[in-house]
Write a structure and sequence with these properties.
Layout lengths: L7 H27 L16 H8 L2 H13 L4 H9 L6 H22 L10 H32 L23 H8 L2
Helix pairs in contact: 1-4, 2-3, 3-6, 4-5, 4-6, 5-6
Length: about 190
Amino acid sequence: MRQGWGDGNVAFRVRAAGGVLLVAHLLLVGWLTLRPLDVPWVSAANLHPFAGIRADLALGPLQAARRIGEGLLLLAPLGVLLPMVGGKLSVSPLGSLARTVAAGALLSLGIELLQTGVPGQIVDVDSLLLNTVGVALAHVAVVPAARVRLRRRAERTPAPREDAHQGTTPTITRVGLAPQSDALRASRP
């Protein structure tokens, strides 16, 4: 049993579902961000923080909302899926947030570094920032409330008895000792 889960089977199912969803999401992100694009020209890499966001804001509110929203939403599911795969209910909220945001930032950095070798894709430090903020926002919005709800559910369900699945312990009838004369007789030649 793990950290307050009422049933080990439930914990396994939640972690397994989280793992499957995490792999599916990462495959989708890889396909969206690392496939070569056939474009007539490619702009230079953006290595100046917030320069791309300012350029997006200059395009107008709808275009800016779309581009900034895409950056926030790309890795946001990791904010929920990573703690789900971890499967712990009783952890420090700040520690969980820090681990999840660090993992999201490292994954985003890895994607940006891989994009340097993909035709048509450009490196953008603002994507790294927006992806990381998206992971943090999703984590803060969902994970603490979900953990509280799951802890309450685990407290309401009665704890299984230790012997509920095993039954009674089998007893062995005592065998009496052989009389002393029999034991001595067997050892003599």
